[in-house]
Amino acid sequence: MMQAPLRPGPPPTSPGWRIQLRDLRATVALVWASSPGHTAALLLLSLLAAFLPAATLWATKLLIDGVGEATTGRLAQAGGYGHLVLLLALQVGIGALGSVLGSLQNTSRELLGDSLQNLITLKILRKAVGLEVERFEDAETYDSLQNAYREVGVRPLGVLTQLISLAQALITLVSIGALMARLGPLVLPLVLLASIPGVIIQNRFGAENYRMLRRRTQDARIQNYLGSVLTSDSLVKEVRLFHFEPYLLERWQQYYRQFRSQLVPLVQKRNAWSSAASLFSALLVGVATLSVLARAARGQITVGDFSLFALGISQVQGQFGTLLTGVSGVYQNLLYIRNLFEFLELPTRDLDAGEVWDAPIETIEFQDVSFHYPLTERQVLNGVTFTVHRGEALALVGENGAGKTTIVKLLTRLFEPTGGRILLNGQDASRFSARSVQREMSIIFQDFGQYQMTARENVVLGASEDAAVEQAGARAGADEFLRSLPDGYDTMLGRMFSGGRQLSGGQWQRLALARLYHRDASVLVFDEPTAALDANAEFETVSRLREQAQSRITVIISHRFSTVRLADHIVVLQGGVISESGSHQELLARGGTYAQLYTLQASGYREEAREPAGPSVS
Ligand SMILES: Nc1ncnc2c1ncn2[C@@H]1O[C@H](COP(=O)(O)OP(=O)(O)OP(=O)(O)O)[C@@H](O)[C@H]1O
User: Fold this and answer.
1) A Gene Ontology MF term for this entry (predicted)?
2) pLDDT of residue 617
């Protein structure tokens, strides 16, 4: 059965002409900015080349007329043999000039395309850096990013090339048209008319193709995801073990079949209409040829004139087609480029806006903080109030989805509260720039990064290097295994690149801890710090953490009560509301949720310890 897409794709959009005009200007400016020299060169060379077809036709006509005279014994009238050779040289010269111009044009276009691709990719990456973290959890942003990337390579250069082709076609058409006008008043209009149906068909189906692709964006993303699950190194074990492959493959194919069912009628219809247009065109060209033949029969034109007509038809049709499709091609390219601009126009957050915070954080105070994620209504935090001082460890406890990580996201200024205030050393945090506050914080997230880079890069993350790298490694209990790697801290990690050493889950986590310690921050945040560590390692890590937290504020999120109990202050969250708070002893004495959960987990350990046959906790 066909699976419904997760969400419907974005509707096809046709921006108004004002937007199109603005995009056109922006595109030309973008191309120019990427390489002014190559853009100017391409423009000049193309305009020069636009005169060549007419020049070739005229030279050919003169040569054929000359040859005609010569072969009928009137060489002297043709200007003599020398003149014929001169005409031939002219024709060959024009051809040679055409090749030189063409080659220079190609060079400029290729280099311009490369600079442009680089500039746009850089713009996209810079944009992504400035986007709100929330955007990355939003499917639409992903679509937008994917659409933007798809357009990087060809579209903007396509617009410029088409604009140049338009000018080029106009020049060529006017110059050849002037030559053809000599063959009778009807010839040129008939030949031009013959080009119109083909162009109309091309436009109509081009627009339909665009709409189909845009509708498909979301499906293509799901299909890509399915493919990536099938080829992922981190998922391969689970996928094999659960025999997930047939289902994934089938779904992947379903998306393809759905796309195919739209593609087939489109291709068939387009080709049927195209052949009808060709027939019509051939008919009109036939009529035009008849009128020229009639003139020839009356002796009103020369053989050269007829050759001009015969060779000129395809030129005129080609250039007229370029002229008509050029306009719609620019229009269509601009539709695609809108995807790029849509992404580049997404609002960014200025992380440096506000006063600069440059002191250690001594107290953090949540005052009646509430929060709902952007684009959602549901309050995930409600009236959250607590204070934590330097030297203290705060633990956040609660079931999945209670709001623990959200508190951390607010604390670390990835998001701003929608209600209430967060005070740092008694001052409203929102006054200060997010980046300057973040400098005082170090964090290890539940889903911390495993960067496919060297161990050293994993620890310093671009910060200037010093001896503190090894110190941080030692504090995280990672120094020993990192030193034992082939190149020590400079060993490439992960499987993605050749020569990379894969670490175990616990080792990666220790490396992330080293990263956390490496930043000399006054607030340390541990979101599930010990999830991938064994019991010994957990005890070691948590004890070390307590030792090192004396002059800092430590915030710990954990489901393990053995970790939580070490905190000075424990906040229990239920559905985004604090249900109780206090020290471990206070909460136990209170006999509330915390006490119940603690007793439950502790009894689990005791049971296991008593029962030798049961699973051991090692
Ligand atoms: N980006 C988001 N957009 C909308 N809702 C979100 C987003 N992230 C989290 N939520 C919702 O906010 C609530 C709190 O999530 P949060 O991640 O803070 O929980 P948690 O207590 O850390 O859970 P866990 O123990 O599973 O990590 C959940 O109901 C979750 O569905």
Assistant:
1) ABC-type oligopeptide transporter activity
2) 31
Residue nearest to atom 19 of ligand 1 (CA): 401
User: Which of these, 93, 82, 32, 30, lies nearest to 59 by C-alpha position?
Assistant: 93
Q: Measured in angstroms, how far is the CA atom of residue 134 from the centroid of ligand 1? A: 12
Query: Ligand 1 site: residues with CB under 6 angstroms?
Result: 134, 137, 373, 376, 380, 398, 400-406
Tokens of 191: 């030949």
Distance from residue 407's CA to the centre of ligand 1 (Å): 10
Q: The sheet that has 553-557: what strands, in order across it?
A: 441-444, 523-527, 553-557, 393-398, 569-574, 577-582
127-181 pLDDT, tens per residue? 888 887 777 777 777 777 777 777 666 788 888 888 898 999 999 989 988 888 8
Give the whole-angstrom CA distance, residue 575 versus residue 526: 21
**Predicted local distance difference test score (pLDDT) of residue 535:** 61
* Residue in the block written with tokens 């170090």: 442
Q: Ligand 1, residues 378, 382, 396, 406: which to mutate, most atoms within 8 A of Cβ?
A: 406
Number of domains in the chain: 1
Task: Identify whether 21 is part of a domain.
Answer: yes
> What pLDDT is recorded for position 579?
93
The protein residue with its alpha carbon nearest to ligand 1, atom 17, reads: 405
Q: Whose CA is nearest to atom 3 of ligand 1?
A: 373
The answer as to whether 520 is a domain residue is: no
User: Rounded to an integer, what distance in angstroms lies between the CA atom of residue 445 and that of residue 516?
Assistant: 10
Ligand 1, atom 12: closest residue by C-alpha: 380
- Choose which residue among 142, 379, 380 to substitute to test ligand 1 binding: the one with the highest number of ligand atoms within 8 A of its C-beta: 380
Which atom of ligand 1 lies nearest, measured to the CA of 446? 27
CA 558/CA 528 separation, integer angstroms: 5
Q: Whose CA is nearest to atom 28 of ligand 1?
A: 401
The Å distance, Cα 403 to ligand 1 centre, comes to: 6
Q: What is the pTM of this model?
A: 0.71
Residue 78 belongs to domain with CATH number: 1.20.1560.10
CA–centroid distance, 579 to ligand 1, in Å, is 17
| Cβ–Cβ < 8 Å for 445, 366 | no
Residue 491 is given by DSSP the state -
Joined tokens for residue 413: 């200024």
pLDDT at 199: 80
Range of the domain at 204: 17-344
Q: State the pLDDT at residue 11.
A: 35
The DSSP H or E segment spanning 369 is strand 363-371
- Residue 35's pLDDT is 94
Locate the ligand 1 atom nearest the alpha carbon of residue 376 and give its number: 4
Residue 475, in any domain of the structure = no
What's the full length of the chain, in residues?
618
In a domain, 132, yes or no: yes
Low-confidence ranges of the chain (pLDDT < 50): 1-12, 608-618
Q: What is the pLDDT of residue 341?
A: 87
- 408 C-alpha to ligand 1 centroid (Å): 11
